[in-house]
Design brief:
Keywords: Nucleus, Phosphoprotein, tRNA processing. This protein is an alpha+beta fold. The chain is about 30% helix and about 20% strand. Strands 4-3-2-1-5-6 form a 6-stranded antiparallel β-sheet. A hairpin with a 3-residue loop joins strand 2 and strand 3. The longest helix has 15 residues.
Length: about 200
């Protein structure tokens, strides 16, 4: 294109881009040899992300997600889990040395994962629970599911029960009434030392 055609083209573009401006103003802008065209981009509509919802408690019960099949309810199957748990606690407490301070180990056990631990019900308001010993298979907010040496799955409530837990000669007591938390919530909770604890 020649210079005249180019000038006419630019003038037409400017006129179309800025219809509110007069010809004199457009001509004035062209003499400065610098021009900023206004551009109004289309507003993009943000797509709302759908939150991925998990199963409800009712759906989990219907699907039997946390059920342990009868043929799997055998003490011997879960002994390797107990061995793994012991190693986990030793690593957590830096070896459980004889000179370790008991309250330090106790504070770590309060927040530790108990799946695989062997516990015994030492005190209970219900005498039939006293003496139950086994490996913790599942921990819920209000109950422990324990497999005994007799291959029986026991559901023991935490409330009004005291559990003892022994590892490498160190015995710790769990007051179930103060332990009414899920395992995931317990790891973040700050426990306060209390002088006396009732069932």
């Amino acid at each position: 294109q020649g210079s005249e055609e180019a000038k006419a083209f630019v003038h037409a573009v400017l006129k179309r881009s800025m219809p509110q401006m007069k010809d004199e103003a457009i001509q004035d802008m062209l003499t400065r040899k610098a021009l900023v065209l206004e551009y109004y981009p289309k507003k993009k509509t943000k797509q709302k992300r759908k939150k991925v919802k998990g199963f409800t408690a009712k759906q989990r019960r219907e699907l039997r997600l946390f059920e342990i099949e009868p043929e799997q309810q055998r003490y011997a199957i879960f002994l390797p889990l107990h061995e793994l748990w012991k190693q986990y606690i030793r690593d957590l407490c830096h070896g459980l040395k004889p000179d370790a301070q008991p309250h330090m180990i106790q504070s770590k056990l309060l927040k530790a994962d108990l799946h695989g631990a062997i516990v015994t019900v030492t005190k209970s308001k219900c005498p039939s629970y006293v003496g139950i010993t086994g490996i913790i298979l599942q921990e819920f907010k209000h109950v422990f599911k324990i497999i005994t040496k007799e291959d029986k799955l026991k559901v023991v409530p935490k409330l009004h029960n005291v559990f003892s837990l022994e590892i490498d000669g160190f015995v710790s007591y769990i007051y179930g009434s103060k332990f009414l938390l899920r395992a995931s919530e317990r790891s973040a909770k700050k426990f306060k030392l209390k002088g006396t604890i009732d069932l």
